[in-house]
Amino acid sequence: MLAIIKQFFTKSHGTTVSDSRFLALNHWLSNTFGETLSPVLISGDASFRRYFRAVHQGRAMVIMDTPVALIPTEPFVAVRDAYAAAGLPVPAIIAKDDEQGFMALEDFGDVQLLSLLNSQSVRQWYPTALALLPGIAAVTQTALGPLPDYDDAFVRRELGIFTEWLLGTHLKLELTSDEEAIIADAFDMLTENALEQPRVGMHRDFHSRNLMVVDGELKLLDFQDAVLGPVTYDAVSLLRDCYIRWREDLVDDMLVEFFVLAHEHALVPPDTDMVQFRRWFELMGLQRHIKAAGIFARLNHRDGKAGYLKDIPLTMHYIRDVAVRYKELGDFAQFIMGRVMPALEASA
Which of 42, 54, 222, 283 could form a disulfide with 37 if both were Cys (CB 3.0 to 4.6 A apart)? Predict the structure, then answer.
């Protein structure tokens, strides 16, 4: 698999006349749409996909290039179809080739919600975004079967990215046995928190860069990794976004709004109180930011995407600020503040 990854990034990350996938993509577009199109690279994402924009008969399309040896297209299509059937705002599929990993999608433009947010507008946009979550929560299976379960192994695998890629590969920290035990205890607590929550359909990457604004309405992207998991995961992804931070009073107001929505749509048991819900939310956010910090390091070292390194400090501040609130995480908070954050500053 590592050889495939290296081959992809050596030959296909970007576009050149010798880019075999780009040549194949152009051939597929010509055969599919009956004319020579001129796809222009928009960007890659935090995976191995690339996205292009092309115009056919005056209609803009987003062209997705997915190396199927690394990421199959079927989950994207299955989740998209299930979301569309549930009335969620996802792009239409105009044409696709599952064997080659090419897809032409409805173009939602370039306006990410993130670009429209400020201390005033967030109070208008975020309730609209949170209102999408009950619909997402209701989608628990696709044509491929039930969504994958965000289970013990899944959670621990994600947490392990932090230890391997941020602490080990990026910061080159040599952990003592006591530090390993502190991390293990913290990860046990976070795993238990994730597993004790009510299970719902989960987008898993619900944040301001994956919400597009089209004619004043929000549209969903990057939903292909949907799973069945904790009720607070998507809400904390939005409210404690890895790319922008809001005042705690605003986050708390929006959390209350989601708490009400969760009860109205029976996403939580009737006796769930705000104290329990807030704890679920905060520890879920801590788990997600630990994972994200590790992923940002991995994107740099494995995938050559250095731009994500600048997002690590915000995730580390989230981690610190939540960890210090919980007595059970006191040693972990000290480890973060005493070992990890100084090492991160020294590496900058």
Answer: 54
pLDDT (tens digit per residue) in 259-294: 999 999 999 999 999 999 999 999 999 999 999 999
> Within 10 Å of residue 212's Cβ, how many Cβ atoms?
19
φ, ψ at 139 (rounded to 5°): -90, 100
All residues at 6 or more sequence positions from 62 whose CB lies less than 8 Å from its CB, including other chains:
42, 51, 52, 53, 91, 104, 105, 106, 107, 108
Q: Are 117 and 226 in contact (CB under 8 A)?
A: no
- What is the total residue count of the chain? 348
The pTM (predicted TM-score) of the whole model is: 0.91
Contact between 12 and 22 (Cβ < 8 Å) = yes
Nearest residue to 49 (alpha-carbon basis) of 205, 154, 244, 173: 205
- Beta carbons of 162 and 291 less than 8 angstroms apart: yes
Pseudo-torsion of CA 332, 337, 340, 342, nearest 10°?
-170
Interatomic CA distance for residues 158 and 136, integer angstroms? 22
CB distance 114 to 311 below 8 Å: no
Question: Which position has the token pair 């919980």?
Answer: 326
Query: How many Å apart are CA 64 and CA 345, to the nearest integer?
Result: 37
Instruction: Decide: 312 and 296 in contact? Cβ < 8 Å.
Output: yes
d(CA 201, CA 179): 35
Give the C-alpha separation, 296 to 165, whole Å.
9
User: Furthest-apart CA pair in the chain: how many Å?
Assistant: 64
What's phi and psi for 53, nearest 5 deg? Answer: -120, 135
Give residue-wise pLDDT tens across range 184-226. 999 999 999 999 999 999 999 999 999 999 999 999 999 999 9
